[in-house]
Here is the input.
Amino acid sequence: MARLPLAPTQSDVKLRGDYANAATDFRVGQNYAAYTDDEHAIWRTLYARQSTLLNEHAAPEFIAGLRLLDVDPQRIPVLDEASERLKRLTGFEVIGVPGLIPEADFFAHLAERRFPVTVWMRRRDELDYLVEPDLFHDFFGHLPMLAHTVFANFVQAYGAVGTRARHPAALKMLARLYWYTVEFGLVASPRGLRAYGAGILSSSGETVYALRASGPARIGFDLARVLRTNYLIDAYQKTYFVLDDIEQLFDSVLAADFDALFAQAGELPAYEPDARLPTDQPIRSAAFS
Ligand code: HBI
Ligand code: FE
Here is the structure.
């Protein structure tokens, strides 16, 4: 039986998944036959809603990845089939998990090129918002970018750094990096400002907000700045960081001396989610360009 995930950042969330039947590395089988017709219909609704937004809002790499995965818009995907396809594309495997898992186990999977996907679907009253990641968020939001080699390499490298991180301050910084890139990242693509973050692209509200709203700041990606910036888990973001291209993500993280960054930023105060710094490089939103 698996331990319950109780990372400091997650301890206030009451988790829904079936952790009692998970393996020690938190894997669970998908039990595909147990999905109800209504759960398949929820997938269909969410897929249809997001796919109409992708052409104008998603990074070209995300759109290409979704196509390569050949996902059925009508039915909940079979994780083992997606895993085979993704393995051929970038060597990443897909494994089922009951939901959020402890940071250390999460990092270990990423470092081994395994991406954990929650096996349960949100309820119909949660189409727009839910606290925990579900199958739609994990699968539709995350897997398309993992079909991109450079992005997949970044996620593995991130996991490897994570498995070496010990101090709570270092783990906090790594959580911020994940949040502002893998979950809520934007990129200045040749087609204009686009989203590649799974938290954005699995939410119809935030997809439009992140790219078009006048409220949030969109600033050039700066690793040291990101590592110091707190984030909101229960509201649209106040700040989005914009990559020049996906390669910048891998390059900046590969070049980073994380031990030095952890030591340095650990002594400095954090920035609030809505902090505006003189060094920030504003990127105009698609609505104003
Ligand atoms: N577990 N299943 C799952 N999915 C996540 O995105 C996830 C997690 N555990 C920890 C975690 N994310 C965060 O702590 C990241 O910042 C690493
Ligand atoms: Fe996620």
